[in-house]
Specification:
The protein starts with a helix and ends with a strand. It has a three-stranded antiparallel beta sheet, sandwiched between helices. A two-stranded antiparallel sheet has the order 4-5. The protein is an alpha+beta fold. It is about 40% helix and about 15% strand. It contains six helices and seven strands. Strand 6 and strand 7 form a beta hairpin.
Length: about 130
């Protein structure tokens, strides 16, 4: 089965330019082809198991989503990253650091995060 590059491009476009290895696998990318594409620079691995395609200029949203996807299930954008997604970060404060909150190993999102609430902003899990 060969990789459906058009479907991979569409997936990346829907997710701020990034995708996970497991998503690419559903489109026909084997472990070997992932490594081959990375070596030949047909994909750019941003974090282990998370990549973008060449020529895509990642926005802040893409960089934040890549960090969330590279982290354990239940991870959310938080702190200054969440502030930026919520529109509460001013450029005069400087570049937005990529910050995420991960659940404890084997646990769901912590009670503190649940009580404050989490949302999906532009498809990115985010603490509010």
């Amino acid at each position: 089965m060969s990789v459906d590059r058009e479907a991979l491009t569409t997936l990346a476009a829907r997710q701020h330019g990034v995708f996970e290895r497991r998503q690419a696998a559903r489109l026909g990318m084997t472990e070997g082809s992932w490594h081959s594409w990375r070596k030949s620079r047909r994909l750019i691995e941003l974090h282990p198991g998370v990549a973008s395609l060449p020529g895509i200029s990642l926005t802040l949203h893409g960089r934040i989503l890549a960090a969330v996807l590279a982290s354990p299930h239940g991870t959310v954008a938080s702190c200054r990253s969440a502030a930026a997604l919520l529109g509460c970060w001013s450029e005069h404060l400087g570049p937005v650091p990529i910050e995420v909150t991960t659940p404890r190993q084997g646990a769901r999102i912590s009670a503190a995060l649940r009580s404050r609430g989490c949302a999906r902003l532009d498809g990115i899990p985010c603490a509010r």
